[in-house]
């Protein structure tokens, strides 16, 4: 079922993740939500859009789910489901907190004083969890828990038509506000906030968020591209993808299962097998066909469609396998080889790395600890996945305590400013000099 390609036929296709039609539609929605260029989203405009696009039934005007309903959803789960949610929450939280502790305030000596950086969280974080084909409580935990671990004071979650398990995850993760709104309209609500003042019939107020994170459909991605700059975003995510590097020791059934797990995400997802053994490719191909046929619907149809743009690559040796993988910089990279640790360390470009047969990518999806929101479309060449660092600000500072000891630095600054032709800079530095008069004081 996997199309066969040679290494020379594999290229990194840099595609714009923003759909042009969705971008136009998102622009229109954002304009509609803020009539007369109001600074915040107008509740009545939001309700009109939410009713029209199916976020809310016509007779429902509640766009915020109460904390009580979220707790009720959690309490309504089976004991096993509650335990799993809490287990995943604990692992994601532990990893995120370890990341937070890895970056600290710094102070160093400079001539005549001190310089350093401080690390602090942004005030408000917006988290998006898809609610389309399948409910994704894991995305709630991955985004909200990470923002909380970073130290954000306010965390807003948006998810369209949230299932009870999604609301339960919001309760566990500690979201302050849960919007049952999706698409571009949800991104607008988090970017600009919702004005719930008396002029708007005391509707719930939502704070404007400093950072918005989380995956979504093409309208979510388009809207994130539009609000980027007004607030921060994590990434513009494209279709999900997995690449498995396998040698002759790989278990074909396991490799096939992992490829299918990725393919069932979406009809545009990609599953890629790279191997130095033709027999492994043949065995995996047979297993993929056998296992896909045994999936329930709609999973089977989704996976089968995704596998049409998926492929396998036969390489001459493991070095070439690694080179093909590095060229593609896959979102998820699995290493199923005899020396998985060694091969993994030689790979340079990926979003998340899964080392060895037992480190299934699905374990990363569901809360081994590291975040599952990862860079797609080759962007792993220069960036990483969602982490506490997306919610942190590292800001530098300097202080001069002894102006005499700072004089060499002042003199260097004067000289560099004039080398760059910035006389105003030079004179500002000269004003701190104990050795020369500023040029503007010289007698003509």
* Regions with little confidence, pLDDT below 50 for 5+ residues: none
The SS-based structural class is: alpha/beta
> Please, what is the oligomeric state?
single chain
Taking the sheet with the most strands, its summary is:
6 strands, parallel
| Strand runs, count | 15
What integer is the average pLDDT? 95
Query: What portion of residues belong to β-strands?
Result: 15-25%
Strand order of the largest sheet: 1-12-11-10-13-14
The gyration radius over C-alpha positions equals: 26 Å
Distance between the termini: 85 Å
Question: Number of helix segments?
Answer: 16
Query: Which overall shape is indicated by the principal axes computed on the Cα atoms?
Result: globular
The helical percent reads: 40-55%
Short recap of the structure:
Helix content is 41%, strand content 16%.
What does this structure look like?
- The protein has 444 residues and is α/β, with parallel strands linked by helices.
- The protein is built from 16 helices and 15 strands.
- The chain starts with a strand and ends in a 14-residue tail after the last helix.
- Helix content is 41%, strand content 16%.
- The strands form three sheets. The chain has a six-stranded parallel β-sheet with strand order 1-12-11-10-13-14, sandwiched between helices. The protein has a six-stranded mixed β-sheet with strand order 2-7-6-5-8-9, sandwiched between helices. A three-stranded antiparallel β-sheet has the order 3-4-15, with no helix packed on it.
- Strand 10, helix 9 (252-263) and strand 11 form a beta-alpha-beta unit.
- The longest helix is centred in the first third of the chain and has 23 residues, at 79-101.
- Helix 5 (137-150) packs parallel to helix 6 and helix 7 packs parallel to helix 8.
- The chain has helices spanning 20-33, 43-53, 67-75, 79-101, 137-150, 164-173, 183-192, 218-227, 252-263, 278-293, 299-306, 318-328, 340-346, 361-365, 407-419, 423-430; strands at residues 3-5, 64-65, 106-110, 113-121, 124-128, 154-158, 177-179, 211-213, 232-233, 241-246, 270-275, 311-314, 332-336, 352-355, 392-400.
- The radius of gyration is 26 Å and the shape is globular.
């Amino acid at each position: 079922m996997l199309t066969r390609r040679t290494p020379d036929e594999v290229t990194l296709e840099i595609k714009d993740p923003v759909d042009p039609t969705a971008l136009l539609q998102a622009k229109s929605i954002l304009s509609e939500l803020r009539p007369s260029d109001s600074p915040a989203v107008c509740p009545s405009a939001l309700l009109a859009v939410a009713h029209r696009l199916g976020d809310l039934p016509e007779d429902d005007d509640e766009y915020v789910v109460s904390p009580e309903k979220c707790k009720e959803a959690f309490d309504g789960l089976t004991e096993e489901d509650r335990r799993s949610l809490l287990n995943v929450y604990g692992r994601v939280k532990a990893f995120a907190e370890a990341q937070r502790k890895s970056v600290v305030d710094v102070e160093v000596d400079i001539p005549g004083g001190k310089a350093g950086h401080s690390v602090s969280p942004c005030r408000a974080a917006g988290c998006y969890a898809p609610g389309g084909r399948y409910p994704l409580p894991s995305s709630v935990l991955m985004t909200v828990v990470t923002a909380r671990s970073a130290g954000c004071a306010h965390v807003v979650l948006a998810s369209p038509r949230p299932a009870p398990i999604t609301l339960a995850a919001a309760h566990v993760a500690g979201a302050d506000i849960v919007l049952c709104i999706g698409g571009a309209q949800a991104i607008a609500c988090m970017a600009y906030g919702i004005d719930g003042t008396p002029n708007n019939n005391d509707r719930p107020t939502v704070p404007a968020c400093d950072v918005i994170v989380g995956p979504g459909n093409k309208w979510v991605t388009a809207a994130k591209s539009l609000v980027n700059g007004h607030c921060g975003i994590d990434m513009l995510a494209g279709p999900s993808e997995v690449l498995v590097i396998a040698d002759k020791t790989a278990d074909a059934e396991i490799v096939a299962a992992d490829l299918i797990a990725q393919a069932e995400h979406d009809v545009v997802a990609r599953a890629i097998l790279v191997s130095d053994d033709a027999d492994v490719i043949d065995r995996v191909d047979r297993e993929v066909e056998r296992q896909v046929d045994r999936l329930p619907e709609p999973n089977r149809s989704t996976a089968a469609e995704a596998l049409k743009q998926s492929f396998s690559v036969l390489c001459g040796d493991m070095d070439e396998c690694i080179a093909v993988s590095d060229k593609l910089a896959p979102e998820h990279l699995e290493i199923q080889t005899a020396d998985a640790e060694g091969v993994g360390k030689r790979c340079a470009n990926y979003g998340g790395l899964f080392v060895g047969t037992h480190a299934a990518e699905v374990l990363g999806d569901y809360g081994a600890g590291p975040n599952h929101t990862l860079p797609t479309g080759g962007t792993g060449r220069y960036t990483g996945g969602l982490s506490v660092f997306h919610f942190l600000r590292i800001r530098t500072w300097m202080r001069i305590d002894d102006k005499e000891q700072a004089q060499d630095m002042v003199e260097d600054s004067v000289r560099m400013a004039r080398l760059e032709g910035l006389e105003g800079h030079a004179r500002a530095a000269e004003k701190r000099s104990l050795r020369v008069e500023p040029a503007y004081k010289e007698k003509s």
